């Protein structure tokens, strides 16, 4: 049975470091998962997961994480323009606020965002080892915001002989990037460091190809650029055969130009507004972890502290606004195997967040909230066929009280036929954001937590001697107590009734030879709010086709096609004549990449995005890149 299997629950969390005394961990066989423990793929139940490896990230050559995620089954990615613009991710049709994004186990969601969402715009692919997406409620392990699923970005860990690399690339829209780094291990010490600088002149965020918005007087002629400086570093040290410590930091400083929203559409210039409109962002993530093997190795434990600090300065039509948000978490997790068939995990944590804002149209004095959490989980393996993961969690929030969540995830393998049956059922909750609670004139301090309950069931089948794997999964999630912004009262309120998302995720992965891999995926997502109205910007259908072909060890190529069906648009979307815009047209994008090793230390690479220059919008009146080309060199020594 292949180790890379979509039904595996693969959520690698840095909290349980794979570095243990005298033990070699092979990532294809042992993963740190949604169970937050080390386990083989066959031991972690039946949740629906996609894993994007470092090799796949390198093959796609995209600059940002949000671009990498666009082909993932069950995900819809919406960017409000080009590089650096606000980006939302919808898992299985749920709101973006219902997705928890982690970087090495650290919450990436911003406490100062209106709904504590995660904007992936400035998260580059530098120094990333893998990206793992778990679909379905995961609050049982991660608490608030994980009501629809979790995306975890895991950065690289130093290993092997010390090495260094330098690189640079240039391309369309005045884009250039330079980067360099070092990684390796020396005796007890390991490290991985990366520094990059990216700049793009960009294009008008207001879509100059949209003939239903005005173009006169420079309304769609001004280029909206982006610049980003990212540093990522991770280091570890083996203190004793049974104890190691590690530290992680990632710093991102960015600036992106903005356009103005006018009566339902976007344009570059607005009478009376500042000429230059932009967002300056400073984001800092850090973590310190102590990993111990106690009781003669029977107890595997991690003690950690992690912190995020985010600051946004916005210059727009409302003037100058400043938003500050930060979070801190301290926690402990321990795992034991009292019996051969069981791994029991206990975790405790204390999480605190705070935010404030000044200037513009919203001024919020410093507000804070905290939550104390505990969780218990049991991984049960009965032979090589039946595996069940069961967990429960209690969160005590200082603003709205306690919340209980649970989850069960079984899978069963019929080894004789290569058939795997899988299922999962879980509950989730999302605490109101500080903005939703306390924004003057908009917030409501009496808001309660949102809740979700979701299940999925599916089957996967291996064929042709494991060269072909096909799978299909049905899912359904219901959301209650949803917090919405009422455009009539201009206040946040609790919606009555339930919103529902349901659908089917399917895939086929074929490897006819050692040099060719083909993956086809299709997702059907039906969504409706409590009134029975379809949720906005979620396609009913989405499909992708990816092929990777290795002509030789030196020459590698990749082709990817992404098709996204028609989507409903927000009720506020209108054209220049005041007519309501109801839907966004379907689109197809084809991307090509290739790389060639000139020498053992020098590689040339390039990519073509949107090969057929498809004109489309992910959000009404927001432009997207047309046909564009990029190329670069990487030298490693």
Could you report the average pLDDT, rounded to the nearest whole number?
A: 91
CATH architectural label: Beta Barrel
Strand portion, in percent?
A: over 45%
Write down the Rg. 24 Å
CATH topology grouping: Maltoporin, Chain A
Structural class: mainly beta
Low-confidence segments, given as residue ranges, are: 1-30
Describe the global form: globular
| CATH superfamily descriptor | TonB-dependent receptor, beta-barrel domain
**What is the CATH class?**
Mainly Beta
Q: Mind summarizing the main beta sheet?
A: 22 strands, antiparallel, barrel
Alpha carbon gap, first and last residue = 37 Å
The total number of structural domains is 1
How helical, in percent, are the residues? under 10%
DSSP summary, beta strand count: 37
Number of helices: 4
Written overview of the protein:
- The protein contains four helices and 37 strands.
- The protein has one domain (30-462, 479-501): Maltoporin, Chain A (Beta Barrel).
- The chain has a 22-stranded antiparallel barrel.
- The relative contact order is 0.14.
- Mean pLDDT is 91; it is low at 1-30.
- A hairpin with a 4-residue loop joins strand 17 (278-294) and strand 18.
- With 637 residues, the chain is mostly beta strands.
- The two termini are 37 Å apart.
